[in-house]
Amino acid sequence: MKPIIWFYFPARLAWRQLVFDRTKLVAAICGVLFACVLVFMQLGFRDALYASAASAPVKLNGDLFLMHKQSEALWRPVRFKRSELMRVLGNSAVAEAYPLYLGLAPFKNIQTRTKRTLMVYGFDPDSQIFKIDAIDDKRAELRLKDTVLFDEYSRPEFGPMRQLLAADQNVTEINDYKVTVVGLFRLGVSFAADGNVVTSDLNFMRIFSRRNHEDIDLGVIKLHPGASATQVQAALRSQLNEFVNIFTYEELLSYEKDYWANTAPIGFIFGFGTVMGWVVGLVIVYQILFTDIANHRNEFATLKAMGYEQGYFVRVVFASAFFLAVLGFIPGYLLSLGLYHMAESKMYMPMPLPFGKVTTVFMFMLSMCFMAGLLAIRKLKDANPADMF
Amino acid sequence: MSTVIDVEHLNFSFGSGVLTQPVLKDVTISIEKGEIVLITGPSGSGKTTFLTIIGGLRQAFHGSVKVLDQQFINSSEQIKVKARQQIGYIFQQHNLLKSLTALQNVSMTLEINAALTERQRRERAAEMLIAVGLGDRLDYKPDQLSGGQRQRVSIARALVGQPKIILADEPTASLDKQSGHEAVNLLKQLAKESQTTILLVTHDYRILDIADRVVELEDGVIKQV
Ligand SMILES: Nc1ncnc2c1ncn2[C@@H]1O[C@H](COP(=O)(O)OP(=O)(O)OP(=O)(O)O)[C@@H](O)[C@H]1O
Ligand SMILES: [Mg+2]
């Protein structure tokens, strides 16, 4: 049989029946749209979470990284001895090794005097372990006592730091310890921290009076030019103690991502939300297709009496499902685009909408409508042509 | 003349076991090509049941039902679907698709036929609607038409595929005397032109005059009149 007969005619009948009842069509489209937006937002938040979780390691400037095996993620590290890091200097391919100190501490808003927790990074100002020019440029100032740099991309609750600095209001408290903000840099918030501050290792010990130089959170290793990171990694792995992980840059990023995706319940929550969106959409579309078949029962039975075979009606139902998927997806996509922009501006989280995600959600909607069609075609057997006379 | 419908010793009952209710008892009738046969009889006598078996819409198990040389007793769905495509149906209710225009409704009969182009389908459907006097209503939907007009659309739908047999179950029941008579005369005229066999169930004694033969069914038993 010609393909046009096979698909075009049932699809055309499905289309004509859909557009005949505008009110119901609008209701059906709203159902798919709702599911679509739900899935878009869940996936958007999840990806924003992963992207921001990795925002700090992304800006680290190193070839290999040392982390305690029990560190689940960078924001909640288990400390290990500085001497463990210094041992890597024995490898001739290693050029430099520097510790990074991390700590969460309350930061006092200079204007409102309210306190909010942010992440404090402590590093040796002689090193260049951040790929952030604004930090490199201020290394001289950071060597001074009680100076910090503030992340401009922190949440606004910490105060309008740029205006405050311009007005010479640059003194505040971190962990109830008085510090001076000597400049700004840009990193970004994550689910772990609403804001960031960078300071020297010496100042870090002053802010966190119970910390000491010997217990470090992360080791950043730079190799001589031309050395292979994976080869050195293998060599170091056999030399170092078992309790440390030695990661390449990519491994560190994926370790962070995996934490949020698997260990933290957050990855699960968004995955669950996505599936719920799918299920809610499925139920709505199924309900619509089901009542549609019931309403057209007599018409289908008439067509059966005229010699149409069962497969024709199955194709009518799947064509309806396909049209609903497409018609709901288009406004759903546009609405999500707006919501993504809103989320970016209100929550200071990166919410990109790449083509890959758009096609993923479309496939999601398609499979949802296909599944609904599969469930609804059972109802077709109610159309019995013998009842038509 | 060739025999189009040949029924021998057809028995049919609804239900099973103690609840078995015989509806057709040893029915034997044969109908020739081009013949117009009317079936009358009291309510519940099995007229509709008989029509649905002839039309391949209901499966019978005992006797012999040959329609267009196909045996329907214990036949496969495939055979019946093929046969249905050569039969035109006119129902008591018009049973038009309400989301389609008159023209699109009539075209539905032709969409099973892959040999035609879309243009040929439209032309044939339009010609048929003109023949039933609805040339100015091609793009009207069923709920914009009167009862008589709807029944004329369904006559056009039944005839447009040039079926060998037309089965009609009380086609005038929902129409007044005038439009009922018009519809049936139209059916007769168009069918005679193309030598189509018509089997028509009716309670309406006003239209008996169109028949070549009238058959009475009483309590599942055929009586020639
Ligand atoms: N689907 C069914 N299941 C069980 N019994 C049925 C069914 N359809 C019809 N019957 C029974 O079969 C008998 C014949 O019904 P049928 O519809 O053929 O009568 P009819 O001659 O067309 O009557 P009418 O003139 O009122 O339309 C009736 O007693 C009816 O109750
Ligand atoms: Mg009846």
Q: Notable features of this structure?
A:
heterodimer; A: 389 residues; 2 domains; nine-stranded mixed beta sheet; 14 helices; 53% helix; elongated; B: 225 residues; alpha/beta; Rossmann fold; six-stranded mixed beta sheet; 31% helix; binds adenosine-5'-triphosphate
**Main sheet of chain A: which strands, in order across?**
6-7-5-8-4-3-10-1-11
Shape summary of chain B: globular
Seen as an oligomer or otherwise, the chain set is heterodimer
Largest sheet of chain A: 9 strands, mixed
| Cα Rg of chain A | 29 Å
Provide the low-confidence segments of chain A as ranges. Answer: none
Number of strands of chain B: 10
The CATH architecture of the largest domain in chain B comes to 3-Layer(aba) Sandwich
Q: Largest chain-chain contact?
A: A-B, 24 and 27 residues
CATH topology name of the largest domain in chain B, in short, is Rossmann fold
Sheet bearing the most strands of chain B, described? 6 strands, mixed
Low-confidence stretches of chain B: none
Q: What percent of the residues of chain A sit in helical stretches (DSSP H or I)?
A: 40-55%
Assign a percent range to the helix content of chain B: 25-40%
Number of domains of chain B: 2
Q: What is the rounded distance between the termini of chain B?
A: 22 Å
Structural Rg of chain B: 18 Å
How many helices of chain A? The count is 14
Task: List bound small molecules.
Answer: adenosine-5'-triphosphate, magnesium ion
Please indicate the percent range of residues of chain A in DSSP E strands (runs of 2 or more). Answer: 15-25%
Mean pLDDT of chain B: 89
